[in-house]
Design goal:
Layout: H1 6-10, E1 26-30, E2 33-37, H2 43-47, H3 54-59, H4 70-76, E3 84-88, H5 94-97, E4 107-111, H6 112-119, E5 139-143, E6 148-150, E7 153-158, E8 165-170, E9 179-185, E10 188-192, H7 211-219, H8 224-240, E11 245-248
Parallel strand pairs: 2-3, 3-4, 4-5, 10-11
Antiparallel strand pairs: 1-2, 6-7, 7-8, 8-9, 9-10
The structure holds zinc ion.
Length: about 260
C-alpha cells in the first residue's frame, strides 16, 4: 500500500512522500501441502479495484499488480497454487482477505468470533470487511479462544496432523477476533502479529511510534484497551524471548528488508 505521508507513517522520508507499506503473507511448506497465512490483495482486486471502495483507494492507495498477489508469488516460487490446502487469516479486514477467491478449495482457519463479525458486521465495522472476498463460499474452519498456553499467551494449535507446528494466538482489539499466527521451526518461532501493531517501534524497548500510526491504530480498533494491552505483552515477549521468537506485523515493510 502506498499512502501519502511517509514521515508520519513510517518515521522516514518526506511529509508528503509516498509511504511503502506491505501486506505480509507467509507460505509454509508442510508434508501435507502448503499453508498460507493471510492473502493480501488478490486477483479480483487487481481486475476490479473499484470493489475495494473509494475510501480505500484514496487513503491506502494500494498498488495493485497481478505479480504481487499471493497466487502469483506462489507460482513464481515454483509451487502449484492448488497445493494450498489451508489458509489462516489473522482477521478479515479487506487488505488481508483479497486472495481468498484465488484459493477456493482451501480450508480457511480463523477464530469464530472474527467470522461472526465479518459475516454480520455492525454498522461501524462495515467499512473494514468486503463480502465480495468470500462470495465464493470458502470452507471456513472456526476455532475458539482458550486452549494451550504459549509463552504466557493463550493459543490454539491448528492442523494437528501437520508437521508444521502452527498456533493461533488471539490478539483481540484491532478487530473482534484478531489473532497472531505462530509458526514453530525447531527451537525458533516466527510470530506473525497481523495488525496487532503497525510499526516495529511499537514493540521496541523503549517504544516509539510515528504519529500517523498512532492515529491510524486509534481509529482502526474495536477495543483500545485490549489492543494496547497486547502491544505491551508483545513488547515484553520480544524482549524476554528475543533469541527464540521473531515478531513481524502485516504492514511494516521494513521487515521485508530483513529487520
Ligand atoms: Zn491490515
Amino acid at each position: 500500500m502506498c499512502p501519502r505521508g511517509a514521515r508520519m507513517l513510517t518515521g522516514v522520508g518526506g511529509l508528503l512522500e509516498t509511504a511503502r507499506m506491505s501486506c505480509h503473507c507467509l507460505l509454509i511448506e508442510g508434508a501435507d501441502g502448503l499453508v498460507l497465512v493471510d492473502t493480501g490483495f488478490g486477483s479480483d482486486d487487481v481486475r476490479n479495484p473499484k470493489q475495494l471502495g473509494r475510501a480505500v483507494g484514496a487513503l491506502l492507495r494500494p498498488s495493485l499488480h497481478a505479480a504481487d498477489t499471493a497466487i502469483s508469488q506462489i507460482r513464481e516460487l515454483g509451487f502449484d497454487p492448488n497445493d494450498v490446502r489451508h489458509i489462516i487469516t489473522t482477521h478479515l479486514d479487506l487488505d488481508h482477505t483479497g486472495g481468498l477467491p484465488d484459493f477456493p478449495d482451501a480450508q480457511v482457519h480463523l477464530l469464530g468470533i472474527e467470522l461472526e463479525a465479518g459475516l454480520h458486521p455492525s454498522w461501524s465495522d462495515r467499512v473494514r470487511y468486503l463480502a465480495a472476498h468470500w462470495a465464493h463460499g470458502p470452507h471456513w474452519v472456526q476455532h475458539s479462544t482458550g486452549g494451550e498456553q504459549w509463552l504466557g499467551f493463550d493459543s490454539v494449535r491448528i492442523l494437528p496432523g501437520s508437521d508444521a507446528e502452527i498456533l493461533l494466538v488471539p490478539l483481540l482489539g484491532h478487530t473482534h477476533g484478531h489473532t497472531g499466527v505462530a509458526v514453530k521451526r525447531g527451537e525458533r518461532c516466527l510470530l506473525h502479529c497481523g495488525d496487532a501493531y503497525f510499526h516495529h517501534g511499537e514493540i521496541a524497548t523503549p517504544p516509539h511510534c510515528p504519529p500517523g500510526i498512532k492515529l491510524v491504530t486509534a481509529f482502526d480498533q474495536v477495543d483500545g484497551a485490549a489492543r494496547h494491552g497486547n502491544v505491551e505483552r508483545l513488547r515484553e515477549l520480544a524482549q524476554r524471548h528475543s533469541g527464540e521468537v521473531e515478531l513481524i506485523c502485516s504492514h511494516d515493510a521494513s521487515y521485508l528488508d530483513g529487520r
